[in-house]
User: What shape does this take?
Amino acid sequence: MKIFLLAFFTLLLPAVMLWGQRDTLPTELIPDLSEQRLEDLLQDADEEADFDLNTIFEDLATYQKNPLNLNEATEEAIRDLGLLSDVQISNLLAYRETMQGFIAIYELQAVEGMDVETIRRILPFVNLGRADADNFQASLKEMLTTGDNELYLRWNRVLETQRGFRPLEERPDSTPYLGDPNQLYFRFRHFYSNRLSIGFTAEKDRGEEFFTGSNRKGFDYYSAHFFLQDYNKRLRALALGDYTANFGQGLILFAGFGYGKSSLVTSVRRGGRTLRKYSSVNEALFLRGAATTLALSDRLELTALVSWRGRDGNLLQAQDTLDNDFDNDFTQFSSLNLSGLHRTAAEIEDRNAIQHTAIGASVKWKATKGHIALNAVHNRLDKTLTLTPRVYNRFYFSGNQLTNASVDYSWRIRNLTLFGETAWSDNGAIATINGLLTTLHRNVNFAVVQRSYPRHFQTLLGDPFGETSGGRNEKGIYAGIEIHPFKHWIISAYYDVWEHPWLRVNADAPSRGQEYRFRITYFEKRRLDAYVELRNEIKGVNVKVFDSNLDALLPQQRLQMRLHCAYQINKALEWRGRLDWGLTDNPINNQQQGFGIYQDILFTPIGMPFSFTSRIAYFDTDGYQVRFYNYEQGLLYNFSIPPYYNQGTRFYLNVRYKGIRNLTLEARYARTYWANQDEIGSGLESTGKPIRSEVGAQLKYKF
Assistant: This one.
């Protein structure tokens, strides 16, 4: 308890000491809202995650140079900014329609649900003027020969020798990593405004071979894209190579990162442009081939796509060939591997073992107040998916072909927006998701989402809003509200209740769950942002019964509370602090609890080439069941969200140098220490010590 109180007052002390100072907050390329959504994305994950998010965020950099015209921008383009909630976007479009456009940027204050802080956040990326005529009459040749170029080189590694890299005599019971411990990344991109992007990306993970063995051609992963957007009145988008696509609310197709429940309680819609370029290094969440969006008329739009790519899969030999010693054909597989790691002989054997072909189309009728669209996707695998029989996966997809179709819609009625999608899979199952967005009062925004995903609904590329992924075996209703009661104050909350009609991996019977989240935020323009949050989830899961081999399905509670504060000390220096406390409890096992605390310093001096960000964190929990996910700033466009748990400390330091024209140099050092454990990591990832140290460096050259 003494440690807890000490941590609490340590967190508050800098805010109290610095309360009277007033300075401006520099415009951030990546807003804090994105950090919150990424933390929420990993809240229920089972492991640490690293993100390479240039595909998501680098468009903001181009919008700084070529702001989005709010008088002409489509709903999809505004949504792609990622800076406004779903309700704010709907209200902005309704106001623009009623007033026949904006006359001055200050009119944004008249849009319901648009507070001063939100307006300040989007101003660097939007305007009300007309686009440069020369820019939008540029030929493809001009876009290819002019524009900007960026080159990235990045290196990372863990300093401690992990088990997978040790000599054979130190790990006689396991196979080794075949490559070295260095992680390498190379990326080149040419772009012209927001309209053309051509890029090439290559990566080698730690433990993967490089110019040897299974990777004699160099890197383990290669990606390339050509993406043309708004080329003329008819050609709205053209994607060649790697890309992502989104139909409707994601019931049958959503390739990319799918945000779900988050602190942005009224942002619950899938959306944005149907097609987007892809240049990240996640080896599962993308399509590879060709796609286009054509405007057939002023109101009718057609998107067509084809994707053909290798997928990692666990191969099985067909039963009728098991007795034939000369027949080594593998015609079946048991599961798709989404990790993208090819470090051991077994992982290499699964690499690109499955050829996945996807063909899809969407016909969308667009009006001023909304749209309706018909969508279809056909998937074909060159081998048959044969699942290991389990009761929970009885209704999962198996076979080598799957067809889905859906209807999605969105419609605005004054300050009310209705949206949804209803989908069909070729086994006859029908799934649906429908929602409502509205402004109940000028200072009150509200969202509600109902979903019904039958246990036998099947999709290979879908990722709709929900408690679990996959869009199956779930029924639920979600309600979120955001209130601006007074100047500088925001109250936000959501409540979600759901049921799973069939068994799940960790629930041996039909189960139910509920979750609520409540946050109060106080902010002062360009100076202070602080919030306190309570989050509580109760859902049925398997719990091991003492002195028995049986599991019991019991309600398990996960409660977390958070206090967060960010303070701009002056134009160059910002301080951030956070205190987390949580517990996990069920009727059989002992209650587990713990807390975590961190403090950040962000130093970005004006007129000086050096800047840095640093964090020191201390955490004390009873184990992994009580963990806290915290966004960590990394090298540019690369972020880490590790869980803090056990008893220990976490430290990192990022340094950036921009003293050479067009060149940015960065370095990173991070270290985790566990005081109550003998080693960090398990299996081949074990460091053999209670310490894990990571170093990295990156070069960015723009020309």
Summary: The first strand starts at residue 49 and ends at 52. The two ends are 56 Å apart (CA to CA).
